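Human: Respectfully, please carefully check these tokens:
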Amino acid sequence: MEEDIMNDEKNILTMKLLHYFITDKNYNPIILQGVDNEIWLENLNSDCEVVRIVSEYIHNDEQFEFDTFKTKRILKKIKKKTFTFNLNVLSIFLDMGDNITEDINSDSKLMCVNAKSEKDLKKNELVKEVFPDLADKMKYSEKGVDLFMKITGDINKHNREDAKRLDKVFKSKVPYITYFLIAVNVIFYVVPMLLGVDVYNNIIEMYCIHGPSIRAGQYYRLLTGTFLHGSIIHLLCNCYSLYVLGSQIESLLGKFKYLVIYFFSGLTGALLSTILGGDAGSIGASGAIFGLMGALVYFGYYYRVYLGNAVKSQIIPLILLNLFVGFMSPGIDNFAHIGGLVGGAIVTMALGVKDKSSTFEKINGWIICAIFLGFLMYMGLVVAGR
């Protein structure tokens, strides 16, 4: 069977292309139902996000037009699943007839290459522009069955390593930091209550997020207010949300990044509350918890091939529902929620997602964090006090 495959020039070219895109360019196969004689590959971090290797014989303009129509329909589904607005696609046709009179590259987003042989592929100007190293990577010393064994072996090795990496990312870990934060929130509620309701009310008055007091120099309120709760129901709801979201973020991003996200989000939520919340006091961990939602959305965007449906159908609706309830219900500090949500997303950008975020993106994230935090501090501590 291997000999039959490697005796066909089209099969050899297909195998070499798969080897290049999967092992060198980190593309992953896209599983599509009802699509025959073509292979779809994706790498959403590449300038050319989708590559098609088409072995079907395209013999006239009508068939090419139908192929274009079919490709656009499939791309709409991929865009919807991956939250991607623009996708650049390279279609490599391995068996295109000479009867095609249309300009196969009339659509700049749907780049097409007619390559009946390896020689055609190497001299194609579009391929040289998009994948300049492809020609060198297509050179192999092995031939026949040895070439087949090398290519399949390399692809299988790459897939195993990729599976191990994903398993490491998504494998559940014991959320010790989440347990610690829940314990602190519970202690801040239970211990004062054991000393009496009056004592607890005095503590809330002394340590809640209160704009005029913070502007008077009591900056510790920006932190302490996030650990206070007004009732047992308030505490239980926030602790449950912290357990569900916190354990996920701690597992996906690590303990250090999790702590930075939690406290930065709590801080930005508290600051926005001092700006827009008036002179009323505010308490609760929900600003930091909304920050965890923002972090989860940001992480989910990078792993949208795997988490796209969950982000779209679960996380984003949950955020919108909570914000709606907050605006419709009196006594809920939605400004802290919004401040925490934005803070969580941008600080996650600064901290980065392992194996996904570039140094440039992380630097931009820190710049945005500095600007956002500086703006909130200036508006909340200086302008609002005038």
Observations:
- The CA atoms of residues 237 and 286 lie 9 Å apart.
- The chain has a mean pLDDT of 89.
- The beta strands are 28-29, 38-42, 50-54, 89-93, 110-114.
